[in-house]
Amino acid sequence: MKIPRLTVITLGVRNLATATEFYRAVLSTTPNTTNEGVTFIELPGVWLSLFPVEELARDMACDISPVRNGFSGITLAHNARNKTEVIAIMDKARSAGATVLKEPQDTFWGGFGGYFSDPDGYIWEIVWGPMFEFTQQGDLKFKSTPP
Residue 37: which region, alpha, beta or left (left: phi > 0; alpha: psi -120 to 50)? Predict the structure, then answer.
């Protein structure tokens, strides 16, 4: 069976209220907090779930420590429509309390982007690439003719 798309990304967070407010501010989306102890944020094509990290570890019922140290090797990414949007999103994240790890700049592969970390240390890349375009529904796709 083919998995057609990623549907939910769950981030284990230290403080649910702080994380909920951070993502409300950065994503300009009203979080759904009707289910006690978890926050859901509906985004086009995928949902973001925020869940207390200790509870997430307990829910998995395995011997995985909820303590995270340093870079895990995974980043979350948002592809913007242009360079100006990259800068605007990075500024919005900074205002919401993100730590900017790399200011937006030209990339070695012809794009433009930067990185920030959220209050729990999850790293986001905000990037624009000349090889991408968006469908009317907002889905990212490769351009039919290369740049």
Answer: left
